[in-house]
Amino acid sequence: MSIHSPSDKPIFNKATEKTLTTCKLATWNINSVRLRIDQVIAFLNTHQPDILGLQETKCLPEQFPYQPFIEAGYEFIEVSGQKGYHGAATVSKLPLERLETDFCPIGEARHVSTRVKIGIASDNEMGAGTFEFHNFYVPAGGDEADVTLNPKFKHKLEFLKNMTDYFTDRAKGDDARHVLVGDFNIAPGEHDVWSHKQLLKVVSHTPLEVGVLKGLQDSHNFTDTSRLHRSEEEKLYSWWSYRAKDVFKSNRGRRLDHIWVSPALRQSAIAAGIDGFEIHTNCRIWERPSDHAPITQILKF
DNA sequence: ATGGCCGCCCTAGGCGGA
Q: Which residues of A4-32 are buried (b: 16+ CB within 10 A; e: fewer)?
């Protein structure tokens, strides 16, 4: 199975020389990039993130719609894809270097690892002009929250534990500059779901998987940027089921999508202020929408 | 209220999503 992009991807251009004071990060589970290419491009044109991580692209690399992204100014594209299911892709205005370290157990396309060149001229510390951008699609985990009965749930927990090991190898020291984005398929907080009590046994919000995700976060002191300027009590959702008749009337959402940063980038996320983080909920009620809304986080250097 | 919808695939019911 081919899970990597073709080798004739665009090469670095003059953007390498660009000096940035901010960088806008985005992530969106698009639930078929081919079906919703017009929506993705509309989102990019309106909100102009520098980098977007897409999940559930649901196509092989050779089927990926490169051209519309390039025409919209996103020349740097790295894809991990398989036929019909899963898949992740990172599209960027800034030069991307593909790290050959994608973490895709059992051959599934669920991770694109890249290094982003932000080109801060004033900062000459090693690595300060770059950060790693890790785009993940964590397994959903099936219905039954029991590892002995449900191999998909077991796979989900193992995936998260392997992610922890992966970053133990990579994210050493306080200088490590890492961004983790994606559909983590877990709503960790009480107010990351519409009803904490009713979802305690529902995969995506069980204490077991929330604990494993917390283990990943704590092991490297990653910051969940969504809560930096929002109270823990504020309801935040990025996913709403297709099954609800009126999505925002019932508003039974979950915050499954995340943008995390390593300690070295925490101040940059804080500096962006309360408006630095946004959930673009309007995208969830576009015609034939994804069941996820995109989220963005600005980093200010 | 445990049913309600999606998108994909060797086009049609099954799988995966969550």
A: bbeeebeeeeebeeeebeebbbbbbbbbe
Q: Distances in Å between the alpha carbon of A197 and those of A45, A191, A203, A234, A277? A: 39, 11, 13, 16, 27
Q: Which residues of A206-236 are buried (b: 16+ CB within 10 A; e: fewer)?
A: beebbebbeebbeebebbbbbbbeeeeeeeb
Which residues have C-beta within 8 Å of that of residue A244, sequence separation ≥ 6? Answer: A250, A252
Per-residue pLDDT of A49-69, as tens digits, reads 999 999 999 999 999 999 999
Q: Which nucleotide is nearest to A183 (CA to C1')?
A: B18
pTM: 0.92
* Of residues A246 and A118, more confidently modeled: A246
Q: What is the per-residue pLDDT across A272-296, written as a single tens digit (0 to 9) for each?
A: 999 999 999 999 999 999 999 999 9
CB proximity A82–strand B (7 Å threshold): no
The per-residue pLDDT for A245 is: 86
Task: Name residues 84-103 of chain A with a Cβ under 7 Å from nucleic strand B.
Answer: 84-86
Q: What are the beta bridge partners of residue A77?
A: A91
Neighbours of A187 (CB within 10 A): 28
Distance A140 CA to B7 C1' (A): 16
Buried b / exposed e over A52-81, threshold 16 CB at 10 Å, is bbbbbbbbbbeebbbeebeebebbbbbbbb
